[in-house]
Amino acid sequence: MKFYNKSQPINYAFWAIIGLLFSAQVFGQSPIDTDRPTQSESAIVLPKNIFQVESGLSVSYLGEANQRIREISMPNVLMRLNVVKGIELRLITNHLQQYRPSNDQERAGITDWQVGSKIQLFSSPKAHMALSTHVILPTGSGRLSNGQFGSLSRLLFAHPIGAKQSISYNIGYNNYGIGSGDLIYTLALAHQVNDNFMVFVEPYGDWQEFSIADVSLNAGFLYRIKNHLQWDFSLGTGLNHTLNFFSTGFSWMLSPSDRESSRTYSE
Length: 267
Prior knowledge:
The protein is mainly beta. The protein contains one helix and 13 strands, in the order αβββββββββββββ. It is globular, with a radius of gyration of 18 Å.
């Protein structure tokens, strides 16, 4: 299997999309709000009639040196659409390139699709709460597919803790169709440097099969290029397991109206 050649058409398409993001005309000027790049999903549902694409590249190294796995995800894509107030529809798809040096094994292809929704349970200037659910469809390529239907569910919370600081946190359960599933948690602390620039630090982890607890740390920034266009960068490491990664990407919002949708919180 040709590791890079197989993915060339998808890579070209990814950079073509990025070009469109910079040149596209939008109808509204509402500030963008995204799930990227934190592990915590935003607790704010998109306003009605907004379509949003969040896409990027991530490179990760997992496991000890003799069993290390390198994974390159490009593009990873989240598409969000709101047609009913308080409810958004979601599709997640990912092209993954995986390499295991221990046996010189390479594979590449599309991972299983995740189709779902996010529902706003509560929203005010002081706090936000939402429910995110996805169904995993066994649509992936060969051994990159889990081969089973599954589900991902999270409760999402966010609120300000100061004039320019905010906190976002998730708690959830992932069931992959086999085994007992995983409990997950995230806790993102963010600081708004100015109207367009935000930095964050985020501990997060999971309790795999209710027996193995992995704890990791993520940090990075978000930069709003335009009201409808955002660039992000993050990197992370495992605190009690071997993991290192970095990620960067762009998010783009198409809106027919000027609505408020921002990560900036005010008292």
